[in-house]
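Hi W., the adenosine monophosphate complex you wanted:
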Amino acid sequence: MSFENLGLAPALSRALADAGYEQATEVQQQAIPMGLSRLDLKVSSQTGSGKTAAFALPALQRILDARGDSSKRREKGVVHGPRVLVLAPTRELAMQVAKAFTIYGKHVQGLRVATVVGGVPYGAQLKALRGPLDVVIATPGRLIDHLGTGKCVLDNLEMLVLDEADRMLDMGFIDDIRHIAEQTPAERQTVMFSATFAGHVGRLADELLK
Ligand code: AMP
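Structure:
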């Protein structure tokens, strides 16, 4: 199936054409329309399936939609944190996801993406977290540090994505994930990607998803 019929904004279709994508993969065909409908999703998919675009495109469309309607932010008077947060198990995966956002978001004007991962100095990250942000892509541990010091706030979060949730739980991030989710608005959209939803991943999904 081509991307034409999935309901994406022209700015996103154009970026996909620029990247040479012609057909949506299976996970993209199934998850993009539901993601655009702002439903919570549990998606079983493997690395290499095209899963990054399956959550990045609905996330970017949300950001484009918000560009036309800033009333929510004006009302509150203050700009607080990102609209979209992606949690990933490793620094490498987080960097890959960030790169995908810049490719798919190439024509989203003024898109601001910050990557918050361990093993890098705090200085540049703090700078990236200052000012209005659209997307934060983070490994749980380092994000917790920034939440603790108030350098990152999640008050305005609209979409939470857990990428490779099973791996994050295998790495012992369950309490960090719960702690992060608690700091986000309850009405958020939550999208979980995992190779499996058996056992503790399934239980976490029951906790976090509507
Ligand atoms: P992912 O599973 O998201 O890591 O994607 C795996 C690889 O497939 C990445 O290099 C993507 O750039 C590429 N890719 C994702 N979706 C498509 C598509 N619809 N057409 C062609 N390549 C794609």
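DSSP finds ten helices and six strands in the chain.

W.
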